[in-house]
Design brief:
Elements lengths: L1 E4 L8 H11 L36 H4 L11 E12 L2 E3 L21 E14 L2 E16 L12 E16 L4 E20 L9 E23 L2 E8 L2 E8 L1 E3 L3 H9 L5 E9 L2 E9 L4 E10 L7 E3 L11 E3 L5 E11 L4 E10 L18 E13 L2 E19 L12 E20 L1
Antiparallel strand pairs: 1-12, 2-4, 2-21, 3-21, 4-5, 5-6, 6-7, 7-8, 8-9, 8-11, 9-13, 10-12, 13-14, 14-17, 15-16, 17-18, 18-19, 19-20, 20-21
Length: 443
């Protein structure tokens, strides 16, 4: 990542950006390890992702493990939608600089804490042992929308980093026990970031820096499904890293003369910001076993390489003597574990349960960046599914994600001297409620 001179046009046309941007909003805010989500509105919400790559019971396997398509009858399509509400709100601590005011930013995620999500999944029989599929869904990114006058405005006001994946897929049943699958991950990414600029003179109010760009990234997903017995199967998946290279013009507005002159002298006006976001590679092993006529057990373990994510914090540490508009944020790799169960309540009804944990991707819960108020997470899910006809079923699920209390303690140059001011406080008892519904049809 670097600051450099020269503007760059949008990577896509206005019509494409508008239509795909609307789809990208479906990704919602991600809360897995880092900014990756398992929640797509499917049955996996109720299972808290347990058995993610081994379940292979509907067309959502196109996304979770393409090899699982070989287990599906006929041609299947599944539509899924979800709504989440996030309790992500900053409580101002006693150490926050008084000059920053008293605004807590409100519920930071989406609109008042609410965000939509979901996806579409299709599996098609090409031959008895060959399946083709397509998935359209977003499981990477996040959207934050703080009030403009909140105390952390010199670090972030609004940010939107989302990735919508288009996954054409193929699966081959190599033997009676082994299936192999692959997907091309064509990811359309949108990057937006707004941050306030300290004009120093309180009579001038704040200036603002806006950046925005769109980019395409490409990756490969590989899957293996091995049926140890008719009752037990193991899924192995690997998703490659996807590079989203944004080149966003620096759009300043409302700058005071002193700050404008300082930025011009530093060569930071009339340029653009290169932001290289690396959607991390990940690997997962999953298992599904049918214990008896009523009970099935599921589990999964996974790893995600967030140490190469590469996010930056925008803003000016010193408005009167600026040297850069970015500060790098370090991250670390994460681990995932989940266990769950399915219980056949009656001939048409199946119940799902699950619990999962993802380790932290930021160094400590005691100094979280306001750009990403998320770290480790516990998930607790439950759901139900009903077979309504041969080849047709619907389901619904709910999940609660608990992220704990995340503290922020950032010490900076005083506001009256051109700095961002000390930002101290906490996001207390962070959590997300997911509500999902889905419908599957075989044709």
């Amino acid at each position: 990542m670097r600051d450099h001179d020269g503007f760059k046009g949008s990577l896509t046309g206005a019509a494409v950006a508008a239509s795909l941007g609307a789809l990208a909003a479906l990704s919602g805010t991600a809360y897995a390890g880092g900014m990756m989500s398992y929640e797509l509105g499917t049955a996996d919400v109720g299972l808290a992702s347990a058995g993610y790559g081994a379940r292979a019971q509907d067309a959502s396997t196109v996304f979770t493990n393409p090899a699982g398509m070989t287990r599906l009858d006929g041609n299947q399509v599944l539509g899924a939608g979800q709504l989440l509400w996030s309790n992500t709100r900053f409580s101002i601590g006693a150490g926050t600089a008084p000059a920053l005011g008293t605004g807590d930013g409100g519920y930071a995620v989406g609109g008042g804490g609410w965000m939509p999500g979901g996806g579409m999944f299709l599996s098609y029989s090409v031959a008895p042992d060959v399946k083709a599929g397509l998935a359209v869904a977003g499981n990477f990114g996040g959207a934050l929308n703080y009030d403009n006058d909140w105390v952390g405005r010199y670090y972030v006001q609004q940010t939107w980093i989302v990735g919508m994946s288009f996954l054409p897929s193929i699966a081959w049943k190599a033997t009676d026990k082994l299936s192999l699958g692959a997907s091309l991950n064509a990811m359309y990414g949108i990057y937006k970031n707004n941050v306030a600029i300290n004009n120093v003179d309180p009579l001038l109010g704040d200036g603002r820096l806006k950046t925005k760009d769109e980019a395409w990234g490409w990756g490969l997903n590989l899957g293996l499904l091995y049926e140890v017995s008719p009752a037990t199967r193991i899924g192995l998946t690997w998703n490659s890293q996807v590079d989203l290279d944004f080149d966003a013009p620096l759009e300043f507005a409302g700058l005071g003369p002193a700050v404008s002159a300082a930025l011009a002298k530093a060569g930071l006006l009339g340029g653009s910001l290169v932001v290289g976001i690396k959607v991390p590679q990940q690997a997962m092993a999953s298992v599904f076993t049918q214990v008896d006529d009523r009970w099935a057990l599921l589990g999964s373990v996974g790893w995600q390489q967030w140490s190469k994510f590469g996010q930056v914090q925008l803003g000016l540490d010193d408005s009167l003597r600026p040297t850069s508009i970015t500060t790098s944020i370090p991250f670390k790799d994460t681990w995932h574990g989940a266990v769950g169960a399915q219980y056949r309540l009656s001939e048409p009804w199946t119940l799902n349960f699950g619990i999962a944990y993802d380790s932290a991707f930021q160094e400590s819960d005691s100094n979280i960046s306001p750009l990403m108020p998320v770290n480790s997470a516990w998930r607790f899910g439950a759901g139900a599914q009903k077979q309504i006809a041969k080849g047709q079923f619907y389901g619904f699920a709910a999940e609660y994600l608990y992220g704990g209390t995340l503290s922020t303690d950032i010490r900076a140059k005083p506001v009256v001297a051109g700095g961002r001011g000390d930002l101290v406080g906490a996001y207390g008892s962070t959590g997300v409620i997911f509500l999902a519904a889905y419908f599957s049809h075989t044709f």
